[in-house]
Structures are given as structure tokens and as C-alpha cells.
Amino acid sequence: QLMREPGVASAASTTPLDSPADDEALVTTTCNTADVAATTAAATKMHRGVVRPGGFYGSPAVPRTKMLDMLRQTVTAERLDTMERVLAERCGSVTCVFENIGDPLNCGACLRTMDAFGLQFVNVIESLLPFRYEHGYQRKARVSGVTKSCDEWLSIDHFRDTRDAVADLKARGFVIVATDLDPGAVLLDDLDFSAMPKICLAFGNEKNGITHALRKAADHRVYVPMRGFSESMNISVTCAVMLKHLDMLGCIRPDLVEHDTSEINRLYTRWVVRASRQAKHLIRKHGFDYDDI
Fold first, then answer.
1. pTM
2. Which pLDDT value is given to residue 54?
């Protein structure tokens, strides 16, 4: 369950819910990669790849603020613990790019799959078709049952042109591995991922596959082996198979804090805001400078 029942507050915060804002300036902490990495290393314990959180909030990674102190009281302690755990386990070195996916159910299923494997960043190319899915707050829509509202916790970048998406991904150091059934693609098992520090899996349209532009720009092209009469799999299934393959190789690691330290505070804040049903009201009432609601 994503949201608590109305009226149930967490005991994890220290500021009364509707206390008037005082005039004292907030203490801000500037942190660098070493600070955040040291904090995370001290605060977490690793067991077979599972990170157990000791607490980001109040650390150099996520300094305390009046807004967060207030909003944290409107979220259950269990949900706050889950946010800490998930943030500590997020992977920043593996991502996916989806080009012109046509079926909203497939879009939603791919998002849910990425979230389940601990990936944070999603890239979508909409040169021909929009990437459509029902947002998490649209509870009654059937697609929401597919996403399970995981889109609320992911970071989704939209591109209108394939070349722009490719340029952005390569500028960030990603090696693009595209799924393709055309000649020249190699078996997924035969590609060596060990030399790729950052990996982007690329998926094309359900019927036509990737565009010529993406095929030309991809660093590698692979296909998933099949033994039946079918010549292809649903895109969300292919996405899951390839991510599981990377997971088995040890490519999906809890390294977001190493690659995107600036994202930790932004993500934590956004997650608390989205987990609180009172966020919009309280942010406006107290005049907090925050617009990602």
C-alpha cells in the first residue's frame, strides 16, 4: 500500500504538524560525493546485495528542513522506512530507453519492471507515439493496476527526437544496448557487459521495433533466444528478461548515491511529498518553496 489511512501520523518526526513557522534560518549542509558515500557506508549494512538503511534524513545527503519535518508527520513510519531502504538500493548505472511504445499497458508494465529491479531513471522517446500510461493518482484506471503507482517514484525523461535522447545518454556515459531482430544482432548471452560501466537497454515499438536512427546509434544490438513458435516476446517481458540477465551478472548495484549524489535529496523530498496526502495543502498553507507536487 502506497498511502497511509487519513489521520494516521508517524512518530518519526519532531515538529508539530501545524506549528507556526519560526524565523530561524534553516541549517543547510553542503555535501560532496565523499561525504554522501561515507554517510551511506556508515548507515547501511549489506547482505547479499540488500541494503538495510540506517537513515538518509538528517545526514549530509538529505539535510533536515521545516517542510520535510512537517510532511514526514503525515506519512507512516513504515512508509518512511521503505523510502529509506529503496533509496539506498537504487541503481543509477543501469537505465532503459523506450522508443515509440504504443500500448499503455506495456508502458505501465515496463515502468513497474524497472522499479522492481531497483532502477531509478527512465528515458522515453516520443518521436512517433506518446508514452502513455495512467499516473498513480488515477486509481480507478485499469492501467494504474499495471503500474501499481510506481511511476510516482521513478524519474522519467521525455525526448521528442531519438538523436537528442542518444546524445543525452552518451553524454552521461551510457553504453546503448538495443534489442533488435535484424541481422547483425548478437545473442544476449554472448555480449560481454563487464566492460560497460553504465548500461542503457533500448526497446522499440511493439510492431516495428527500433527506428533506423536508434539502430545506427546503438553501441550493441542483441536478441533474446527463444525456442518456441513465437518469433518475439512482449516488450515488458523482454525488458524483465534483460534486466534479470544484468542482475544475475551483478550489473544492477545499489550505486545511485555514487553516480548521482545530487539526486538523493531531490528524490527523498519528492517521495515524501508524493506519499503525503496533505502535502499540497500544507505546502501552500505554509508557503514552502516547492512546486513538484
1. 0.79
2. 53
